[in-house]
Amino acid sequence: MRGEKPRLVSEDGIRHDGRRLDELRTIKMEVSILSNASGSAYVEFGKTRVIAAVYGPREPPQRYMVLPHRAVLRCRYHMAPFSTDERKNPAPSRREIEISKVIREALEPVVVSEAFPRTSIDIFIEVISADGGTRTAALNAASLALADAGIPMRDLVAAVAVGKVNGYLVLDIDQVEDSYGEADMPVAMAPSLNMVTLLQLNGVLTPQEFSQALSMAFRGINEIYRLQKETLRNKYLVKVE
Amino acid sequence: MSVTPTSPDSIIPRLKAETLSTLIKKGVRADGRGLEDFRELKIITNYLPKADGSALVKLGDTQVLVGVKLELGSPYPDTPEEGVLVVSAEFVPTASPAFEPGPPDENAIELARVIDRVLREYGVIDVSKLVIVPGRRVWVIWIDIYVLDHGGNLIDASAIATLAALLTTKIPKYTVTENESIQIDKSSHAGSLPVVRKALTVTVGKLSDSLIVDPTIEEEKVVTAKLVVGVGEDGAIAGLQKSGDGYLTLQEVEKAIELALRKGSELLSKVTEFLKTLEAASTESAEVSSVEEGGSSRNSSNA
Fold first, then answer.
1. How far B170 CA sits from the closest chain A CA (Å)?
2. Residue B242 and residue A198: Cβ atoms within 8 Å?
3. Does residue B208 belong to the interface with chain A, where contact is any CB pair within 8 Å?
């Protein structure tokens, strides 16, 4: 599809960066990284780096932008000009507008928005380094930032993308695998509630491949979910002597 | 920035919402359909005299017009031997009291991008056949989706209209002169657009434990989440998009996809069958101009 396809998965199932097919990249997570925001988080998946900030619940700048029975969520996914190989125009692209929408819709089911009528909960995500899987890293960060802001949630949302590369299903695809691969499927879940809150597929899969890809995503999501909880526990759990 | 919808369009009387929900949970719909039934579908191809390909699709009360225009352009540097595909969608203010004039909002952008992905990734058009001067001049296929009347399920209606318009698109006749200047003669054509594989979408709506296809605009207000499934003619999943503020369980995702693939293949054969009879009719009556074809109702059919 995009010129010569390089070999990205070896015969014995080792990927171009040395990972196994079902292996996540090196993940780092941190919360409360910003002083002004109500809650914030930093998430790193290999060379993909994302910052999320949550402001609110607060009165939105336009007062008509409220609902009488719940808070509205406002969400912006944005890529910094220096996050990509070639400088990205900072004006929001169609891609960023769509991703802002699917991220907001992935968080709506877990945020207890009924607790804050006539307010706005704002989620701002900045991708500072993009190397594939930015929307899923963004969701992991946004979910942590909401928790860090103390906003009541039914569950955390954890997300990862599964791809198809050289005919193999691979977990947590990076930029090279996405550019030369056959399919990219980001998935987000609230794992304890069995809620799939984001699901996209860019590419073609048979129904059998899809089922396998979904199970692979599910296992990755549970691992990420565990790391998210650990991050919050490390920050907030006080040891009683 | 994406904001939880606050417009009056997203509110219907609670009593009506409850009625719709109760019915769906019982396995029936307000308009008498079963949960897995599409509304009546009408397709009129060659609807527009000035477009290189066009189709008007009516799916219940929803009307979508798609115009395809071919223009000369440069290929992308990373795909020098491929034509270019551009999909845009406009939710024109004629279609709904909630649509305002202005640049496409997130819903229009999402619709266009979902259809773009299905066409592109499934390889509906053989873009390698759209090269005029390799690396320099290629055909740019502009697909413009015009939502004229919003009666629900805009993505599926748009996908059907896009496929029908592409299948009737003609490539204008052109001549390449020695100094690589290209002359286009739009009065005659050099053949059909190379549509090599067919795909469309089926949107499955979830309401508590029930899954429905082809929701009306009112049903869309009670459906908590939708899963748009790209369906290829070989039964492959040609794209996915969960849309809406709700969720699906893992089991519901699998069920929704199974349902979408089943309904999608039915829908694809209906659309293909209809376009075939249309093609046969037009070759019989030899010189039917596209204007007449588009204007007459004999070309519309209940597919």
1. 24
2. yes
3. no
Q: Do B240 and A201 touch (CB under 8 A)?
A: yes
pLDDT 10s digits, A193-209: 999 999 999 999 999 99
What is the share, in percent, of chain B residues with pLDDT greater than 70?
91
**Would you say the ipTM is above 0.90?**
yes
Tell me, yes or no, if A206 comes closer than 8 A to chain B by beta carbon: yes
Top pLDDT among B187 and A130 is at: A130
Q: Give the 3-state secondary structure of residue A51.
A: strand
The predicted pLDDT at position B275 comes to 87
* Mean pLDDT across chain B: 90
Q: Report pLDDT digits (tens) over A29-82.
A: 999 999 999 999 999 999 999 999 999 999 988 878 899 999 999 999 999 999
pLDDT band at B6 (very low <50, low <70, confident <90, very high): confident
Cβ contact, residue pair B242, A100, below 8 Å: no
**pLDDT band (50, 70, 90) for residue A21:** very high
pLDDT of B291 strictly over 90 = no
User: For the residues B161-167, what does the mean pLDDT come to?
Assistant: 97
User: What DSSP letter does each residue of B179-204 carry, written as one string?
Assistant: TS-EEEEEEEEEEE--B-S-EEEEEE
For chain A, the domains span: 27-233
Contact B2/A101, CB-based, under 8 Å?
yes
The CATH classification of domain B31-299, taken from the options 3.30.230.70, 3.90.930.60, 3.40.50.1700, 3.40.50.970: 3.30.230.70
B275–chain A nearest CA distance, Å: 25
Nearest CB partner across the interface for B245, out of A3, A109, A218? A109
Contacts of A103 in chain B (CB under 8 A): 2
DSSP string, chain B: -EE---SGGG---HHHHHHHHHHHHHTB-TTS-BTT----EEEEES--SSSSEEEEEEETTEEEEEEEEEEEEPPPTT-TTS-EEEEEEEE-TTS-TT--SSS--HHHHHHHHHHHHHHHHHT-B-GGGGEEETTTEEEEEEEEEEEEE--S-HHHHHHHHHHHHHHT-EEEEEEE-TTS-EEEEEEEEEEE--B-S-EEEEEEEEETTEEEES--HHHHHH--EEEEEEEETTS-EEEEEEESSS-B-HHHHHHHHHHHHHHHHHHHHHHHHHHHHHHHHHHHT----HHHHHH-GGG--B-
**What does the pLDDT average to over B22-41?**
94
The whole-angstrom separation of Cα B229 and Cα A200 is 9
Across chain A, the runs of DSSP E, i.e. the strands, are 27-31, 39-45, 48-58, 72-79, 120-129, 158-165, 168-171, 183-190, 195-203
Say which CATH class A27-233 falls into: alpha beta
Size of interface A-B (CB pairs under 8 A): 127
What pTM, to 2 d.p., does this model score? Answer: 0.93
CA distance A12 to chain B (A): 27
Give the number of other CB atoms < 10 A from CB of residue A37. Answer: 20
